[in-house]
Design a protein that fits this description.
By secondary structure, the chain is α/β, with parallel strands linked by helices. Helix content is 28%, strand content 24%. The chain starts with a strand and ends in a 5-residue tail after the last strand.
């Protein structure tokens, strides 16, 4: 099938392209940008006038539920949300049920992805068996089965010796470690940032040191073992400083931040509204601004959704008793564009943080409109306003603090390997 995308503003950071032109697609791949191939006769033409055409987004941290949690969401519902968000590649964290610690579970994920008609779901294998933090998983067999990285999700590793051995094992097979830094003892089952808001409302709290101490320990082990480490969902100023220093001294590290951490702080939390219950917790205005600066300066190179859909029961009850996480795929683009409108980052930086940079972290031949690459493309209208409501929302999880709000920026077309998997139908 041949597709031509016409008259759009093409923004492709990986190839340093920012101009109004056309994209040519055939056989599921990018054939050309700007120059029409000889004899090209498109079966479909997409008019992208007044819209932006960019590489499809790559999300480094998602939960799709299903596999024991279908009451919360299913692959079918969540890939619809991903497609509507312009996301063409998903990284699935290993804390599924069953845990992604055997090749059989990896195969099951591939089957579920195929059934959902969204094959580009990459499994992150469990670092330790059953994520229990004590015995190493068979990382080589997980890599051979198709795992793109290993990690322990939000679960603790029993001690630093086990973490060292796990990182040595991962390094020996050139496997990326995805590490969400959190010292569980210091976290002490908290649910909010250790600060004025937690004190005012009597909420059990998590100090930023729970993140920074775990991060510092892992950085030391990264230097010792030579393991490639991607630090996920950073939340505070001191973490950004430590990553900056590590990069300066040549460590093979990268980092991402969840989109909500770039907009919300502890001061935005409505008392006891569990939509604001996330891990790591929403921190201070100073932390938020430093995360933005880290993104603009390249210390943090990627933005993720950290998408975690929940059913209503999971978010009912006292704030500390509810389950953490937001349903956040569909707010990813408009919240990134809001950063651009607030001059925190440029549009090119925002798109790179959602496409080229995550592709580089994962070593994927994607995240760019390069001829020969799979035609993963997002077309969006940066000025189109829409309300977050049951009419527009695709995810089965409605646990978002942005419910009912009007956001600007909406995806009109998403192509995955040259197949149109989302087309916005305007309702009159």
């Amino acid at each position: 099938m041949m597709i031509r995308i016409d008259h759009g503003r093409i923004v492709d950071p990986a190839n340093d392209i920012d101009r109004v032109d056309s994209v040519y697609i055939a056989g599921g791949k990018i054939v050309s940008v700007t120059d029409e191939p000889a004899g090209f006769k498109p079966d479909t033409v997409i008019d992208a006038s007044d819209k932006i055409v960019c590489p499809g987004f790559i999300d480094l941290s998602t939960r799709l539920r299903d596999m024991g949690h279908s009451r919360k969401a299913t692959f079918k519902s969540e890939v619809l949300a991903a497609a509507a968000a312009g996301v063409t590649t998903l990284c699935l964290q290993p804390d599924t049920a069953p845990v992604i610690d055997t090749p059989a579970v990896v195969e099951l994920i591939k089957e579920l992805a195929e059934k959902a008609d969204y094959p580009q779901i990459y499994a992150v294998g469990a670092l330790t068996q059953k994520l229990e933090g004590s015995e190493l998983s068979s990382m080589l067999s997980l890599k051979q089965a198709g795992c793109i990285a290993v990690g322990n999700a939000n679960e603790p590793v029993k001690n630093l010796l086990i973490l060292r051995r796990a990182m040595e094992y991962a390094a020996s097979h050139d496997l990326l470690l995805m590490f969400r830094p959190n010292d569980f003892d210091l976290g002490n089952n908290g649910c909010a940032h250790e600060g004025a808001v937690a004190t005012r409302y009597g909420l059990p709290s998590i100090p930023e040191a729970a993140e920074t101490i775990a991060l510092a320990q892992c950085l030391e082990l990264a230097e010792l073992t030579g393991c490639r480490v991607h630090f996920g969902q950073l939340s505070c100023k001191r973490s950004v400083i430590k990553i900056h220093q590590a990069k300066k001294y040549g460590l093979k590290v990268s980092a991402d931040v969840a989109i909500h951490q770039l907009h919300l702080t502890e001061n935005d939390m409505k008392p006891f509204d569990s939509a604001y219950h996330v891990l790591p917790p929403l921190r201070t205005e100073d932390d938020k601004q430093y995360l933005r600066q880290g993104l603009a300066g390249g210390t943090i190179n990627s933005i993720c959704s950290d998408h975690q859909p929940h059913d209503l029961d999971a978010k009912l009850g006292a704030f500390p008793e509810t389950e953490p996480g937001m349903s956040s795929l569909e707010t990813l683009l408009p919240l990134m564009l809001k950063l651009v409108s607030q001059h925190a980052i440029t549009l090119e930086q925002g798109i790179a943080c959602l496409s080229a940079n995550p592709a580089r972290v994962l070593r994927l031949d994607s995240g760019a409109l390069t001829p020969g690459f799979a035609a993963d493309v997002c077309v969006f209208d940066p000025e189109l306003e829409w309300q977050v409501n049951s009419v527009n929302w695709k995810s089965q999880g409605v646990n978002t603090p942005f419910w009912g709000q009007t956001l600007k920026g909406r995806v009109t077309h998403t192509l995955q390997a040259g197949k149109i998997i989302h087309r916005l139908i305007e309702r009159g």
